[in-house]
């Protein structure tokens, strides 16, 4: 639905006030995402998509579900921006392939050793030098594979299912179990990677600011962020492979649109 059509469909009183109050939230999320996107992505496109997400949030928000409007709107806005980015995947197929190889290497090493896979071990497993491995991480910084929101496949599905009285209880519990497992996986990241994730996604610092906190270069922060996302995907692979049958067709459809 276009932004104009969506706006016309929302008849809630005070909509203009809601949009006006949260327009800054749209811009904040857009600029935060821009920090790890290539230069050909236009900030105006993200903001426009985010405004559509804000309108969707205003139309669908139910305060009885417990989440504040700003929390719910933030999820919708970010999801709308990601949908816009999905329309053109600028990342070469080779980058996706190498990213999958790294995640698989991490999973194999951690299954064998019972501890976090180290940079040098992953590089050796892949037959790469350490500098080549770091370059793979650097190249993949803007790849959608590493998006924390993408790991949750848009992030708002749990809220949607909880708000939908027709959603099967088992499916809702499974979604909640996934969220808990993801939280545990984040908590189990190496300290530096966990700190990068926290500063980026919770404190909403940009990569340069995180580098200043950690005392490392911005490019090193990019590598740590990419490595953290790969490690999370490797550790959550069992959940992704064992998705509920009802959720599989929709997820496959979304993935097919990204190829």
The tally of beta strands, per DSSP, is: 0
Largest sheet: none
Mean pLDDT value: 75
Ranges where pLDDT stays below 50 over 5 or more residues in a row are 1-11, 144-173, 243-259
Distance between the termini: 23 Å
CATH architecture of the domain at 1-88: Orthogonal Bundle
Could you state the CATH homologous superfamily of the domain at 1-88?
RNA polymerase sigma factor, region 2, helix turn helix motif
Tally the helices: 15
Helix content: over 70%
* SS strand fraction: under 5%
Q: Roughly how many Å is the radius of gyration? A: 19 Å
CATH top-level class of the domain at 1-88: Mainly Alpha
Oligomer: single chain
Q: Could you state the order of secondary-structure elements as H and E?
A: HHHHHHHHHHHHHHH
Class from secondary-structure proportions? mainly alpha
- CATH fold-level assignment of the domain at 1-88: Rna Polymerase Sigma Factor, Chain: A
Coarse morphology? globular
Helices and strands, with pairings:
Layout: H1 3-9, H2 15-34, H3 43-60, H4 69-86, H5 93-113, H6 119-126, H7 130-139, H8 148-151, H9 157-163, H10 169-187, H11 191-202, H12 207-214, H13 218-235, H14 237-241, H15 248-258
Helix pairs in contact: 1-3, 2-3, 2-4, 3-4, 5-6, 5-13, 6-7, 7-13, 9-10, 11-13, 12-13
DNA-binding region: 207-226
Function: Sigma factors are initiation factors that promote the attachment of RNA polymerase to specific initiation sites and are then released. This sigma factor controls the expression of flagella-related genes.
Pfam families: Sigma70_r2, Sigma70_r3, Sigma70_r4
């Amino acid at each position: 639905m276009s932004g104009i059509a969506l706006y016309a469909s929302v008849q809630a009183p005070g909509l203009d006030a809601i949009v006006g109050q949260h327009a800054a939230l749209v811009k904040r999320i857009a600029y935060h995402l821009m920090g790890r996107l290539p230069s050909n992505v236009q900030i105006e496109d993200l903001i426009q998509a985010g405004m559509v997400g804000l309108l969707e949030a205003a139309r669908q928000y139910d305060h009885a579900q417990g989440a504040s409007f700003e929390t719910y709107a933030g999820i919708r806005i970010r999801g709308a921006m990601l949908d816009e980015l999905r329309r053109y995947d600028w990342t070469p197929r080779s980058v996706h392939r190498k990213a999958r190889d790294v995640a698989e290497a991490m999973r194999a090493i951690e299954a064998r050793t019972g501890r976090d896979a180290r940079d040098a071990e992953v590089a050796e497993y892949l037959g790469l030098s350490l500098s080549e491995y770091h370059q793979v991480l650097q190249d993949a910084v803007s790849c959608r594979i590493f998006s924390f929101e993408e790991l949750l496949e848009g992030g708002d599905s749990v809220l949607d299912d909880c708000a939908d009285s027709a959603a099967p209880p088992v499916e809702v519990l499974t979604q909640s179990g996934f969220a808990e497992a993801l939280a545990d996986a984040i908590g189990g990241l190496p300290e530096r990677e966990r700190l990068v994730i926290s500063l980026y996604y919770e404190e909403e610092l940009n990569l340069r600011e995180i580098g200043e906190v950690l005392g490392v270069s911005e490019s090193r922060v990019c590598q740590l962020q990419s490595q953290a996302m790969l490690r999370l995907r490797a550790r959550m692979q069992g959940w992704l492979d064992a998705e509920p049958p009802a959720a599989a067709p929709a997820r496959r459809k979304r993935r097919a649109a990204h190829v």
